[in-house]
Each structure stands twice: as structure tokens, then as C-alpha cells.
Task: structure prediction
Amino acid sequence: MKVCVYCASSVKVDKLYFDATETLALEFVKANMEVVYGGGAIGLMGKLADTILLNGGKIKGIMPRFMNEVEWAHKNVTDFEFTETMHERKAKFLEDIDGLVTLPGGSGTLEELLEAITLKRLGQFTKPIVILNTNGFYDPLREMLERCVREHFMHEKHLAMWSFVDRPEEVIEALVSAASWDESAINFATNK
Ligand code: AMP
Result:
């Protein structure tokens, strides 16, 4: 199983977020899962990659060239793909994966997650999306998404596109048991 992980680049976040990232990375290694991520060396991205590499797991970085030029790429991640643009990178993140996991992060993580949700809504991305809600970090996003549905900006069926879990140990089970999704999702549009 191959998963893409979106997470923070910040080094300043509370230790509990680093601990959750480490636990999740160990779960991936234990389950022999392959991870694709943004290629960063610091923050939760760095913790994810360091833990996977230290424990013999598989990780691949996808990064736009301009980030590599300012030396943001993780030096020990050997499997790397460089793109010309951020857009191209985001498209590549979602290619050929079995699921997407989002950990706490800033605007970069949020926009990556929301793009994936939007593509899934249109039936262009059909894989499970699991949001790790460490420390209730994503409670406001969950409320926002549910409000979108409650106030009919989105369809009730869209609630099945994502799942929130509180603990890293629940992520793989959530990926495996996610509701199936396909191209017909484009028909759940709210403009009818
Ligand atoms: P954020 O959640 O805002 O920290 O965004 C994570 C995303 O930020 C990554 O996918 C990158 O697009 C970008 N990013 C910002 N700083 C770095 C860094 N030092 N190394 C790698 N990526 C970074």
C-alpha cells in the first residue's frame, strides 16, 4: 500500500505533534507501507522522513525544483522527483497512491488537503482521505466541512469522502475501511 502524507514544515509546533508523526511513521513501517511526501527535511515532514528512514521504511519526496535550489530537500531521502511547479507537484502527489493522510499543518497542508477533497468531490481522485486530528487540531475544519453540508454548499454524500481519526494508531484502519468512491461522484453536485 502506498500513501501520500501531507504535513507541516514548521519546526516550532508542540512536541505532541512530532510524537504523533513519529508514531504514525512507525505504523507505516510496521505495515510495510510506502510513503510519498513533500520532501522536506524539517518540521513534521522531517520527523516523518527521519523516522521512516531510521526504521528501514520506504519514502519518496516530490518537490518543485525551486525548493531544492534553496536546499529544502531532505538529504537522506534518495527517492526524489522534482517538478517545475507547485501545481505539477500536487498533481503528482495524488498519482498512483492508495490513500491520502493529512497531519496538522499550515496553509500548505490545508490547501493540499482541500484540493484533494475538491478533486474527490468531482470524481477525479477516488482514494481514501484520512485526517489525523491530533490534539483536536482539525476540529474547526471538521465543523467547517460539516457546515458546508448542513447549509447545502455540499451534498450529504460528500461526508463519506474523508474520515477524521484522533490517534495515529487509527490511521491505517481508517484507510482500509474507508467508504468506496468513484467517478460517478460528479453527479452529487449541489447545483441540481
Ligand atoms: P505548511 O503546512 O504550510 O507547513 O506547508 C507544507 C508545505 O509547505 C510543503 O508541502 C511545501 O509546499 C511547503 N514548505 C514550506 N517550507 C518548507 C520547507 N522548509 N521544506 C519543504 N517544504 C516546505
Remarks:
- Residues 2-187 form a domain with the Rossmann fold fold (CATH 3.40.50.450).
- The pocket of adenosine monophosphate is lined by residues 8-10, 38, 40, 42, 67, 72, 105-109 (CB under 6 Å).
- Helices lie at 15-30, 43-54, 65-69, 86-93, 107-121, 139-150, 171-176.
